Amino acid sequence: MAILVKLSSTVPFALTILSFFSIIAIIESKSFSRILPPSSLGLKREKLSHLHFYFHDIVVGKNPTAIRVAKAPTTNASSPFGAVVMIDDPLTINPDINSKLVGRAQGIYALASQTDFSLLMAYNFAFMEGKYNGSNLSVLGRNSVFSPVRELPVVGGSGVFRYARGYAEARTHSFDSKTGNAVVEYNVYVFHY
Ligand SMILES: *[C@@H]1O[C@H](CO)[C@@H](O)[C@H](O)[C@H]1NC(C)=O
Ligand SMILES: *[C@@H]1O[C@H](CO)[C@@H](O)[C@H](O)[C@H]1NC(C)=O
Ligand SMILES: *[C@@H]1O[C@H](CO)[C@@H](O)[C@H](O)[C@H]1NC(C)=O
Fold it and tell me: Does the keyword Transmembrane helix apply (predicted)?
């Protein structure tokens, strides 16, 4: 009995609190989204940039930059399907790995084809050169490594590359079939603000 009385006296109070919060919720929901003029974010003119560099995928060596982190039970040298590799590959201005470092490619590639050497690549270019220092581009695409030219979509970016869209062209510069180490020439074309 005492409990019932107590409950009934708290119900109107609870309702008042509830309606108070729902009024706040209505006010807040008005600002969930709004249309902005692009100039309010300082967006003026879209630019097209071309970046050129060399990507070093070091699988075997003193300091490997590409490390296999997983594989399928059936993955072997003649059937690499299912291997997953984590990379932190240096990007340099010239094919020589000791030339100027302009960034790193950080992410994952996986052997995604049962019939050829095609990779699913998902990685970020983290740049450290000039005005691009601290800005990143995100790449997601298919890389059929023995094709002369591969095209991978650039799906976004940060810093100077906000709103980026474009593509990366990859061409093998050198490949050591014994180790799997590769130097890949990249030409990246991106629109950004
Ligand atoms: C590699 O794996 C494939 C598919 O699982 C199998 O058919 C083949 O015999 C294996 N090769 C070797 C050398 O183990
Ligand atoms: C890039 O930016 C970082 C952090 O601001 C700075 O320490 C570094 O010296 C810069 N590198 C180049 C090459 O400008
Ligand atoms: C780009 O990536 C680096 C890490 O590699 C991060 O420190 C930096 O904040 C990113 N830049 C932007 C503009 O988000």
Answer: yes
